[in-house]
Amino acid sequence: MLRVSFFLCFLLIKLSLCADKYSRDDFPPGYVFGASSSAYQVEGAADQDGRTASILDTYTHAGKYDGATGDVACDQYHKYKEDVQLMVDIGLEAYRFSISWSRLIPNGRGPVNPKGVQYYNNLINELISHGIEPHVTLHHSDLSQALDDEYGGWVSRKIVKDFTGYADACFKNFRDRVLHWTTMNEPNVFILGGYDVGFFPPQRCSAPFGVNCSRGNSSTEPYMAAHYTLLAHASAARLYKKMYQDKQHGYIGINVCSYWFVPLTKTIEDELATQRAMDFYFGWVLNPLVFGDYPDVMKKIVGSRIPVFTSLESRSVRGSFDFIGLNYYLTLNIKDCSSTLKMETRDFMADSATKISPLENGTTTFEFPITPWGL
């Protein structure tokens, strides 16, 4: 079964502001209202009960967020019952949370941490006891620091085996109550931020494209990281479908960050640039999942820097999902910048040969243009 899941940020806020116009009855009976979070943003207890560092711990402890860290965060590790009650109070029907890889498997691979299993069991059971569907994300930008130290994390093929082992541990321990699994949250974002421009962990990038990185290659590593992310997703999905899905009747998919792109002008150059932006920013992830290969325009422009799927890998990746999750935030204008393609050294941003700018419109408190029609 193919399911499309939309996690709409600010939807509940929007509905509350328009309470005189819309109500729950305006949505189909099967529509699920929920909220989502990531482990590092809410759990806290960063060094408690066997949890080890993730690349986010290393990044924040280096002062990247003006001294702010996730050491305590919302303290959901200790206050999960209060948090679930808040969800009940506002009428949520689902909660999508991520599992901290380094809490469940402190060394990245090997023995599972019983205290980590106990925490997630407690959270899942508390949700279910209040009629709230648990939706689990396996990876939300918090790769185990141990694996990044050992072989570079997502830029190594070794990550495919280790991620599959981690996913298997999650399936084994929580499959009897979790029916909705997301392997990766926004791989297009954490890869660009972490391996191209370097403003996210693990800060792998290179001049002149990256920011304050001491290692990495912005011209090649984003494509490598995306390739191994897709293979890891497909491997975990294949495992779930083979070993668990028939008995549990659950669903597994992936979540991407999506925009809607609009040509800045009506010129053919900007229209072509807009299609190119779509191919680069989410066709990069979705094309292999649907068709088994990267978009043609990416392969043409990036050339030998983009990895090649073998026939077996292509078949493995293609169709390896029951749903596609979309995190939609805003709509953007696209202007052609084909001149960047003449540069001898390029990164992902230059390869897309586009200039991106926000639409002029009302904005949220995060200065995102309010463009719900773009969804």
What structural class results from the helix and strand content? alpha/beta
Number of helices: 15
Q: Looking at the structure, what is the overall shape?
A: globular
N-to-C SSE string, H for helix and E for strand: EHEHHHEHHEHHEHHHEHHHEHE
Cα(first) to Cα(last) distance is: 22 Å
Low-pLDDT runs? 1-19
Gyration radius over CA: 21 Å
Mean pLDDT level: 92
Number of strands: 8
Kindly state the percentage of residues in helix: 40-55%
The major sheet is characterized as:
8 strands, mixed
Q: Strand share of the residues?
A: 15-25%
List keywords for this structure.
about 40% helix; alpha/beta; about 375 residues; 15 helices
Give an overview in words.
This protein is an alpha/beta fold. The protein is globular. The N terminus is likely disordered.
Summarize the structure.
By secondary structure, the chain is of the alpha/beta class. The chain is built from 15 helices and 8 strands. Helix 4 runs parallel beside helix 6 (114-129) and helix 8 (158-174) runs parallel beside helix 10.
